[in-house]
Design a protein that fits this description.
It is a single chain. The protein has about 325 residues and is α+β, with helices and mostly antiparallel strands. About 60% of the residues lie in helices and about 10% in strands. The chain folds into three domains: about 100 residues, no CATH class; about 60 residues, Helix Hairpins (Orthogonal Bundle), CATH 1.10.287; about 150 residues, Heat Shock Protein 90. The protein is elongated and about 120 Å long.
Length: about 325
């Protein structure tokens, strides 16, 4: 109790009153001594009553403040630098209320993000599903010509492949968000990684008459996850192909130094509009030059896969001509970037 300055003053006053009462009683004796002792006791009680009333008033104010915060009121800085149990309580309650308000705001933000995410996913799935239902009805017609049946079957297969691609990427993003996507760490030949990343999109580029140029000299092995890094590069090449014109060119360059490896993917399309740059890596964001049917998750996935390994993906317009340039930076050793 003596360490609490809120009680030291009243305690000292009570001791002084008790000492004064003893002296007066010893000096007066008889009825006068009893009266003096009663007066001193009453004064001591009044002191403690005043202290108790003041403490209860502060507790009541604190309770009213907490009730207002619970009702959504404004947070106030109730921290108190004075010593005492109530001051310590106010400081602890301030920390708790601030933390709870931050968590509440984060939950509201997450809820809004989830609503937008579910809306985007439903939109991405609704479009191919609608087309698939129409084609399924057409394929059920017995009088459908064989050439049309083959055409609709091919379109149905393409829509199913698009849905499979979308769901696989969404699953990868959710695993990254949950922190349960395991990244391996093994020596990787980056030129081989780029060739592996380019393989899945070569046919699409050829169908559009586009040229894919690889400038990837041999260099030191990089330590990381080949599979998921190749996935990131594939998404960058696919994005470049979607924005390059038919008959255009996509160039992939690899450069390495002691600190980092840099894989740049360039196209000769219209470039990145200034309005799209702040949101370029947002999930499901489709820029003004987005290709028809684009899901808007390839760039977001590429960046998340890079960051999971200590790297980064950046975007800019080319300095030597029209087109965009995306750069994937990977640290040659952990923490190098």
């Amino acid at each position: 109790m003596l360490r609490n300055k809120e009680l030291i003053g009243p305690f000292v006053i009570t001791l002084a009153l008790a000492a004064a009462s003893g002296l007066v009683c010893g000096a007066l004796g008889g009825m006068a001594a009893g009266l003096a002792g009663a007066v001193c006791t009453a004064l001591a009680g009044a002191v403690w009553l005043a202290v108790t009333a003041r403490r209860y008033a502060r507790l009541r104010q604190l309770g009213e403040y907490l009730a207002s915060v619970y009702a959504g009121g404004e947070l106030l800085d109730i921290r108190d630098n004075r010593e005492g149990e109530l001051s310590l309580l106010k400081n602890d309650l301030h920390k708790i209320t601030v933390t709870l308000r931050q968590q509440s705001e984060q939950l509201a933000h997450d809820k809004q993000f989830l609503q937008g995410l579910l809306g985007s996913i439903s939109h991405q799935l609704r479009t191919p599903l609608t087309g698939m239902l129409v084609m399924a009805d057409l394929l059920a017609r017995p009088d459908l010509p064989d050439e049309k049946r083959a055409e609709f079957t091919g379109q149905l297969t393409a829509q199913l492949e698009r849905m499979q691609w979308l769901l696989e990427r969404l699953l990868t993003l959710s695993r990254l968000d949950a922190g349960c996507l395991v990244m391996e760490s093994a020596p990787v030949s980056l030129p081989a990684l780029v060739r592996r990343a380019a393989a899945p999109v070569r046919v699409a580029l050829e169908l559009r008459g586009q040229t894919l140029e690889l400038d990837c000299p041999e260099g030191p092995a990089w330590q990381g996850d080949e599979k998921w890094t190749a996935e990131a590069v594939t998404n960058l090449i696919k994005n470049a192909s979607e924005h390059a014109p038919e008959g255009g060119r996509v160039t992939v360059r690899l450069r390495q130094d002691a600190l980092a490896a840099r894989i740049t993917v360039e196209d000769n399309g219209p470039g990145i509009p200034a309005a799209d740059r702040p949101r370029l890596f947002e999930r499901f964001y489709r820029g003004s030059n987005a290709a028809p049917g684009s899901a808007g998750i390839g760039l977001a996935l590429a960046r998340e896969l890079a960051r999971a390994q200590g790297g980064e993906v950046t975007a800019a317009n080319r300095a030597d001509g029209p087109g965009a340039c995306f750069t994937l930076r990977l640290p040659m050793r952990p923490g190098a970037l």
